[in-house]
Amino acid sequence: MAKAPRVGHVKTRLATHITAARVVDLYRCLLEDTLALARTAPAAHVAIVCPAGDGVDLRRWFEGISVVEQTQAGLAAALTMTFAHFAAAGFRRIVAFNADTPHLPAHVLERAFDALTTHDVVVGPTLDGGYYLVGGRASHPTLFATPQLSTSSALDALLSRVRALGLTCARTDEWYDVDVHDDLEQLARDLESQPGRAPRTAAYLAKHWRAGDRDDGSR
Predict the structure, then answer these.
(1) Strands 169-171, 121-125: parallel, antiparallel or unpaired by DSSP?
(2) What is the pTM (predicted TM-score) of this model?
(3) 28 in helix, strand or coil?
(4) DSSP for 63-82, written as a single string
(5) How far apart (Å, rounded) are the C-alpha atoms in residues 219 and 217?
């Protein structure tokens, strides 16, 4: 799940601490590392689902990768369309995630696909009550029919829908995603000691996120 890298269009909650241009540069790194992570999944078909109108920029940026544009706006609609689109194309283990967890260990992603051999749904919970990953074996049009997708109760709302639909659900490791300034601070610390987990992002943060070199208005 991705957006075209444009100012004011991506990672807007980070713009209070980083200049808008650098937010876009950071997002490029996050997404490139995320795609590299996706490619580690054995025999996976990697695709980008994006808002309508973003496809041209993303196809130009990532030549050779399938890009599917949303037919409706919003995260719930995007996830619903993602599972409907790929299930209709014959895929039976579909995992959706965005560029907020490029540092996720590859084995966690592989475990998510494995979980779908025995469960209807798999979810990766975040530390703040949301989820960084969701997968399924089929399309369930009402699975994401909840207004709480972008709040701290997103995980509970999803699990409630899973139970209501009578589906089985597995969980992967709890992880953190990069939404706000504190998350980015944590990511910078983690990648300083393990840059190989997200090398493009690690290189960017090593260059632009050292104390005294942040665009947060403190200089």
Answers:
(1) parallel
(2) 0.90
(3) helix
(4) TTSEEEE-SS-SHHHHHHHH
(5) 6
CB atoms within 10 A of CB 186: 14
Distance CA 215, CA 219 (A): 8
Give the pair of three-digit tokens for residue 194.
């393990």
Nearby residues of 166 by Cβ (< 8 Å), 6 or more positions away: none
Do residues 80 and 69 lie in contact, with contact meaning Cβ atoms separated by under 8 Å? no
Q: Average of pLDDT values for 48-71?
A: 93
**Hey, where are the domains in the chain?**
12-208
Q: Which residues pair with 66 in a beta bridge?
A: 47
Question: Residue 62 gets which letter from DSSP?
Answer: S
CATH architecture of 12-208: Alpha-Beta Complex (3.90)
With beta carbons less than 8 A apart as the criterion, state whether 5 and 24 touch.
yes
DSSP assignment, residue 208?
Answer: H
Distance CA 118, CA 106 (A): 20
Segments of the chain assigned E as strands: 47-50, 66-69, 94-97, 121-125, 131-136, 169-171
pLDDT band at 64 (very low <50, low <70, confident <90, very high): confident
**Residue of 96, 11, 21, 24 whose CA lies nearest to 57:** 24
